[in-house]
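SEQUENCE WITH STRUCTURE:
===
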Amino acid sequence: MSAPLSAPRPVRRGLAIAGALTLGAALAACSGTAGSDDGGPAEVRVALPTSVTSFANADVAVAQELGYFEDAGLQVEVSNLRSGTSVTNGVVGGEFEVGGASIEPVINAVAGGAEISVFASYADRLEVELVVPEDVQSVEDLAGKDLGIQEIGAFREAMTRMVLEDAGMTQDDVSYVSVSADAYVSGLVQGQITSAVLHPEQSIQAAQEDPGLHPLVNLYEVEPDYFYGAYFADNAWIEEDPEAARGFAEAITRAHRAMYEERDRVVPIIAEATSMEESVIDEAWEVYMEDVQAFPQNVGLEEDRLRYTIERMSQMETLAPGAEVDLGTLVNREPIEAAVQELGEVQERE
C-alpha cells in the first residue's frame, strides 16, 4: 500500500451525520427478493462502527444510492454508533439486525457465547496508518504520550496496541485518550493527541490541515493477513429470514464491484456519506481500490486470514485469555455464497 500524504487543498467541513438514516424504501419487482409478511420491503436495521461513515464502510451508501437494496427487496435503516464494540452490543441485544464492525469485538462476543455470525464483509484488508506529528520519528517516541483511540478493545485501540507490541512496548507505556471518529484529525492538528489510526481519506485531510503530520506505520504493510471489517447478525435472524440476509450480502457485493469499476460514479456518493470533498475521496479511492484492493468482490471470508487474526488477537491479548473460537461458529457463509451464486463470480483481487 502506498498512501502518501498529499499537499494541502481546501477541505469542505461537512457536519457529522449521526443517528439513523433511512436507506431504501421500495420492494423490487422481481422474484427471489426479501420481503415482509405484508408484502412490503423487509426492514433491516444496520449499525456502523463510527459516528461518521468512513470510506471503509461506505459500501452501504453505495448500495442504497445505486438501488441495490431496493432490488433485493430491502428497506435499510443505518445508525452510526461510537465503535465496533457498541455495534456488537447492539446486535447481541436485538436493537439491530445487522452490524458492521472490525472483527475484534465480534470474535470476543462469539468467544463469550453470543449467538451471532459473520456473513459478509466490508473492507476486510487493513488500509489504515498510524499518523503522528513531525517530531515523532519512531514508535519509541510515543512513550508517555497521549494516543487517540475509540475505546479499549475497539479497532483503533487494537491497531495501536499492535504497533506498540511490534516495538516492544505495551499500553502501559502510553496514555489512551478516547476520541470520537470525527475528531481524530482535529485532535492531531490541535496537539490534543500524539497519534491516531486513520483511514486514507482522514490521512489526506490531516496533511491538508497540518503538512507536518505523517504516517509512522502502514498497517497493511505490517499485517497484510489481518482481517478487518465484518458484517454480522444474530443467528436467529439469519435462520428466520435467509432471503433478507442473502439480499443484504448481494447488495453489498454489487456495491463492492461498482466501487472498483465505476470510480466516477461512486466517488460523489462516498464523499456525501463521509462528509468529505470529492477530491479527497478520489485520492483515497486509489489506496482502497488499487493499492490495497480492500473490498472483496466474491465470497471473501478466507479461513486462513480469519484463523490468523484469531491467533494474532490471542498473542496481543485482545482476545479473552483462554478463549477458543471455532470458525464454524464464527462464520456463516451461506448468505454470501448464495448471493455470489446468484450474481456470478468475477475475477478476484490480487
Notes: Residues 226 and 309 are 5 Å apart (CA to CA). The longest strand covers residues 42-48. The longest helix spans residues 242-261. The chain has two domains: 19-125+228-343, 129-222.
